[in-house]
## 1
Amino acid sequence: MERFLGTISEGWSDDVTGKFTKVLRFDDQPENGISTYATLGLSEDELDLRNGRTVRQELLLSVHASLPNNEIASFLHCCAERLKERGRAALRGEVIDFRCPLVDGATVSAVYATNPTPFDDGLAEFSNVSPPVIFALLVPITAKEVSLIGIHGWNWFENSLEAQNPDIWDFKRDQEITE
């Protein structure tokens, strides 16, 4: 990860389950003023794909650097534990709905899994292990956006993200994707 994201700025461990999943923070990634958080250790477990294959996975979440580090790290731990418990990887286009603000004061209540396109292509997959480790970028979304994805599908949503360009790094954003 450091090859693509730079030096680790901070890290957290969670030993609640007896399996250590760490969350790492990288500053000014993918751009200045944005911090990217990454799980480390989720990939120790193989997760199922819908087609009967398995994969290893790590999660990425990018936010404004001004958001509280401990809350963001705790939330990402929660996401990793949810995937471990269900035993299935987060796939592109999947919505993981928490139905409540992701952190204190947030307007977003879910995350949308997609490819880590804001980063170097090499970060998408680490294939030196079998099965490979794939990286999923979690984009925080609002309840209205969850509904729109359900109606129009993930391809429409990704096209709308590009066209409307909301501040996806802001957990407290007012601008939402619209039809």
## 2
Amino acid sequence: MLDELRSASGPDFDRRFWTYQLAEHQKAAQLLSYEIGSGLNPALKGLASEVLPTVMQHLRQIQTYAAAAAVGTGSQ
């Protein structure tokens, strides 16, 4: 991933960056949701419950940026 970003520039860099960010935030949200629903450690469940809203807010923002980069507006 890092090599791909290093070799990209301009709109290509934007598209790749936001695509990676989108995928990683989706994974994080999925893991946090799993922990909240199925976790065995109460402290981790609590932490996941605190962190998930922030990750979801970031995910919504990234979806907007990724969509803009996909159509080439370069909006960041």
## 3
Amino acid sequence: MKALSINGMRVALASAVVALLAACTSAPVQTYPDVTWRHLDPIVFAAGPIEKVAAYPAGGDNNLEAYLPFSLGKMAMNWPDDRIQTAGTSDILRYSVTEASITSNALKTTKGFSGVFTDDQSEKVEMKVSAKLEVLDPNGTQKGEVAATAVRTRTLAESMSVAEREKAVYDETATLLMDLDRELERQINANFGRFLLR
């Protein structure tokens, strides 16, 4: 029996990859629950209504947001619904998400024959979310502001399936949003004491 040439191996591998991609595209899309903070104690403000502003720009060419079955930006916008309660004074709270991005960059992997037997980290995913909370008087004049940013990175192995990659990015996104919550709460306690009811 004639040994398979390098070119023959490449053709066989390419065929296997095409079959795998076809199987992935026909698989049902996994759904993921929104990250919530309902299990945490609310932060109670002596203020009136809460305005929410989605101020984050659309991502660039390497932004994964459009391809994932969940949205970092939309989940970050839900934060005040779970964490803030108001006592109904004339002051206004304005919560803005100013950045929400999940970007992907390819990493160098082993080429040639050795690459067939090497499971490299092939992709680096970077996640960043920023938000600010303002206290405004009834005329819209700012009385105070706090801001928070959370950043995380995760590398993905080239052997991971599409579903495994999505799950890994979702898990990291959930951790990122918890980081944002902790930093916002820290900033609020440090700088907004005069507006809080405890």
